[in-house]
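Consortium newsletter contribution from the modelling node. Members have asked for a concrete example of what our holo predictions look like. Here is one, prepared for the iron/sulfur cluster complex that several groups have been discussing at recent meetings.
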Amino acid sequence: MVEKLVDSYKREIDYLRLSVTDRCNLRCIYCMPEEGIKIINRKELLTFEEVIRVTRILSDLGIKKVRITGGEPLLREDIIRLIGEIGKTNGIEDLSLTTNGTLLSKYAEPLYRAGIKRINVSIDSLDPQKFKAITRGGDLKQVLDGIYKAIVAGFAPVKINVVVTDLLDKKDILDFVKLAVENFISVRFIESMPAVDLNNVECGKIGIIKSDAGLNKNLSGGYSIYKVLSIVKKNWSLYKTDGPIGYGPSEYYKIKGSRGTIGFIFNNKAHCKNCNRIRLTPEGSIKLCLFSSCEFDIKAEIRSGVSDVDIKKKLVDFIKTKPENRDANNDYKNCGSIKIPNYMYQIGG
Ligand code: SAM
Ligand code: SF4
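And here is the predicted structure:
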């Protein structure tokens, strides 16, 4: 009988965020540094076969749900074939994808056929100029066309992820809610995460690089996610709903007559007690928490010839170092600590 991944707090881990690349064709100000990124040497990325092997090992240990992410996952060579193979892995019941949407027009239908059930698209403003500024060059129309193709392909609903930064203003909020009211789209406002050195976002201004507030402090200075919720409540009469299927710490609301839902994802350690997820980075490290420096270098195990059986034993031990919550002391001894990645594109968000 193969052991399952259960941590020291009796949480069963059945959800994997699988980052297939660190490459991206956008440069979102809250995710990447303006001066550009140092991409991982191709040889250091997990190969197609290695990704499949790691998925098989993890599904044997109880992983049932996989979200494909990146960088921009649709830039990965052979992404459709890779997704198809992951979907065929015994035990994987749910496959989803997070994308910036720039290549969705081309990929929506093949993704649907390959077995992706749910798609999240990241858009932080419905104003084309502002979208361009936030993504440092993105074309909003291209992304909206992609969403349209995704709906036509059969994705229902498509979720839109909106990171709440100081750049989000009242007009943005009202535009997004209108989009959810009129379409079968779930808009989710996401509290920003401090796993990045965000010195480039300042209240109300775009592209201003100046802040001594450090990490995430300046990100919540405009509207906090709670303020966004109160603005939405003030303008519409909301009622709570279960929302579309998903496995995150979200609260969903509907407005009478709306086709879609409006969600709020709080960056709150209260949700940690139900955490069921781990992450696989593109260079083959398993991370137990965004806020933990502990990593398990599964690529090193594979490339040094360790058997699946032995890797599974090590993972069952490693999972016990998953911190109780985001504020817990993560400085575990013997946890194979490597580094804390600075930017979301390196971890998968
Ligand atoms: N490129 C794809 C995309 O943008 O959807 C997938 C990778 S991206 C890193 C995954 C998610 O992380 C996106 O929804 C993005 O908005 C979110 N994200 C990036 N940086 C973040 C931050 N500092 N706080 C909260 N979410 C963040
Ligand atoms: Fe690229 Fe996604 Fe990061 Fe934006 S959030 S820079 S699209 S990885």
